[in-house]
Specification:
The protein has two domains: 125 residues, Probable inorganic polyphosphate/atp-NAD kinase, domain 1 (Rossmann fold); 148 residues, Sandwich (Tumour Suppressor Smad4), CATH 2.60.200.30. The radius of gyration is 21 Å and the shape is elongated. The two termini are 40 Å apart. The chain is built from four helices and 20 strands. The strands form four sheets. Strands 3, 4, 5, 6, 7, 8, 10, 11, 16 and 19 form a ten-stranded mixed sheet that branches. It has a six-stranded antiparallel sheet with strand order 15-14-12-9-17-18, with no helix packed on it.
Length: 311
């Protein structure tokens, strides 16, 4: 075990590193077993590291629980991570531990964002505490809603994707779509009727976007993957599916939606809903706080290198 005195900060005073472990609790043995491994490992390394550890089930954790943490360990799968990452600020490192890896069980989780697993946890947590992990700074989408009364509301940041649609999914989403010109798309200012708009980060396209829009074989310039996002108007009538960016786009410009729906919502990563009413203006961009995600054997972008076009 290396650097057991990493806890020394400022004049040699040992300052404990504050760790929060958020875990998936659904009464399946495999997840309970993984939690036991994490608890036992952290207890063992506490003999060499000054650490304070708190535990919380995903269903009970609150935003306040993340304040002042030096490290957040998420035990579960991608759904567990995206469900709690909204509450993590851009300065707090997050370590994902896949509690049910698909490599061991075909019914397990793929765990795209999960850089560790129970087998490698002891080695990886030491590297994290010793500042030897790979740090991936991931951009996140966010919507800012301007209400007709002048209030501004921000949605949760989205690591994967963000949906804007009518709260009654059986009714069409009616809106004005606006976006400034960029290097790939002309300026847009039009009225649309669709089943809603889906926005995706570069990494999030594999979660939902590619099931909505056929972009198989498309690659993206390496220098754009951190500052561009994907957009598509879901189920837009075929005659309106033009190649000018009104149907789908890869862009770095904010997309402005003016709602003509009685009630609509923005949903970040399939979790919390932020509601709006007719006349509200919603601006969607990559201005959300980034996420500091730790991995240990490769960079997160190495896992999707087939989508990246070298400059």
């Amino acid at each position: 075990m290396r650097c057991p005195l990493r806890g020394k900060r400022g004049g040699g005073v040992r300052v404990p590193q504050n760790i929060l472990v958020v875990y998936k609790k659904n009464f399946e043995h495999v997840h309970d077993e993984a939690l036991d491994i994490v608890k036992n490992t952290l207890e063992i390394i506490s003999n060499d590291f000054e650490i304070i550890v708190n535990y919380s089930a995903r269903e009970k954790v609150s935003r306040e629980d993340f304040i002042g943490r030096d490290l957040v360990v998420v035990l579960g799968g991608d759904g567990t991570l995206t469900s709690i990452a909204h509450s993590v600020d851009e300065n707090t490192p997050v370590m994902g531990v896949n509690s049910h890896p698909r490599e061991i069980d075909n019914d397990g989780s793929y765990g795209f964002y999960m850089g560790s697993d129970p087998v490698n946890f002891k080695e990886d947590i030491v590297r994290a505490l010793c500042d030897e992990a790979i740090i991936n700074i991931l951009p996140r989408l966010q919507a800012e809603i301007s209400t007709t009364s002048g209030n501004k509301i921000r949605s949760d940041p989205a690591l994967n994707d963000l949906l804007l649609a009518n709260t009654h999914q059986y009714q069409p989403s009616k809106y004005r779509l606006q976006r400034k010109e960029d290097s790939k798309n002309s300026e847009i200012n039009c009225i649309q009727y669709s089943s809603g708009c889906l926005f995706s980060t570069f990494l999030g396209q594999g979660a939902w976007y590619r099931h909505v829009n056929n972009i198989e074989g498309t690659t993206f310039p390496e220098n754009e993957i951190d500052n561009h996002y994907l957009f598509v108007s879901r189920d837009l009538p075929r005659n309106d599916r033009r190649d000018d960016g009104t149907y789908w786009a890869w862009t770095n410009q904010p997309t402005i939606i003016t709602s003509d729906m009685h009630r609509g919502y923005v949903v970040a990563d399939g979790w919390d809903e932020t509601h709006f009413t007719r006349g509200a203006t919603i601006s969607v961009s990559l201005n959300g706080p980034s996420l500091k995600l730790l991995t240990f054997r490769n960079k997160i972008y190495d896992r999707v290198s087939f989508w990246i076009k070298s400059n």
